[in-house]
Structures are given as C-alpha cells and as structure tokens.
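Subject: sequence -> structure tokens, single chain

Hey, anyone have a minute? Need the predicted structure for the following. Not urgent.
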Amino acid sequence: MITCYNLISGCIATYYAFQADYLIALAFIIIGAVFDFFDGMTARLLGVSSPIGKELDSLADVVTFGFAPSAILFSWLSAQHIHTVVVPFLAFIMAAFSALRLAKFNLDERQAMGFIGLPTPANALFWGALIWSIEFRSWFEPYHTSPYLIYIVLALMFLSCYLLVSEIPMFALKFKQWGWQGNEVRYIFLATSALIIVWLGVLGIAVAIAWYVVLSALLAVRNKN
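Reply:
Had a minute. Here:
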C-alpha cells in the first residue's frame, strides 16, 4: 500500500511538471521519497517483503524518480526559445537511464549498505530543485535569455545520466547505530546539507545533492588509496 502511495505521488508530480508548476511537482517527489523510505523500512520490520512488492517498488520508483523529473526538464525545455522540437524530448533519456539504474540496483548484491552510482531519488530531487530555482530564483534571471543556459542544463542532464549508471560508490544514509564512530561522513553530510538548505532554500536541495556526489567521489578516491 505504501508503495502505491509512492506511485501515486509520482503520477501527481508528473501532472504538475507538465503544468510547469515545478514547486508542487518537487513537493510530490519529496512525498514519494518519504513513502519510498518508509515502504522499505516497514517491509523489513514486518518481514513482509515479496517478489511482487520488489517489482512494484521499482515501477513506482521509475515513475516518481525517473519519469517525473524528466517531465520537469521536458516542460522547462519546451518553454525555452529553441528552434527545434527535438531538444525537449532529450529530457526523457534521463528516464531511460533511471530505469536502467533501478534494474541494476535490483540485481547488484554490492548495494546492501551503500550505492553504486547515483540513487534515483537523489537525482530526482536535484532536478526538481534546480529547474524551479532556474525559473524563479532572481540569481538566474540574467541568464534566462542566454542560449548557454540550455546547453549547461543539457550537459548536466547527460552528466546525471552517467552518474546514475556509473561505478562510483556512494554512501547511503543507513545507520546501524547512532554513534559518531563509523557515521562521521553521514553526520557531516546531514549537518552541512541542513545549513546549505537553510541558506539557499529550494536551490539548496540541488546543491546538497551535488555535495553528496562530490563527497562520495572523494571518499571513493580515498578508499582506493
């Protein structure tokens, strides 16, 4: 049932994305992420996980964290002064990579306590927050008429597609115990992200996700050495 709430949240987010109401779309992506979190936790606590639940969870995630952010990007690109109708449809490449990411996650036994590649909820939150900020934050107003903004956004989209299916280890916010030792990175990330979001508002969500990727990459390099 909780998984279905996630799916419904993704459907509502997609509707508002096509209406160019990016803040409401982002809000329902966040709601979907909350349902997704409690869905897995509830299944583990009650011991009621099943193959059907796993498949339904992936389907819900594809909608909420794959198609919905792609719809947000498609809607924004469609509103730009682009001389070809093809460019906005490039946004749906991200939905395909999100589905591939989720399929890999289901089969990859290395991701029990961490992730390999960018998690789809993080990617969805990044795009929902970024597109709303580009459209409504005064910081971006001077660049609204610049074609380079579209190129930068598309470049970020292709980068996020790569990160979704990359082999970069990324830490999960899963706590085996609540002490500082062993959770240093998680606590540092949560504290700095909270400060960033308080400082930047909605844009801070996108910046926090970018910080998550950078911090994960730095940890991966350190662990290799």
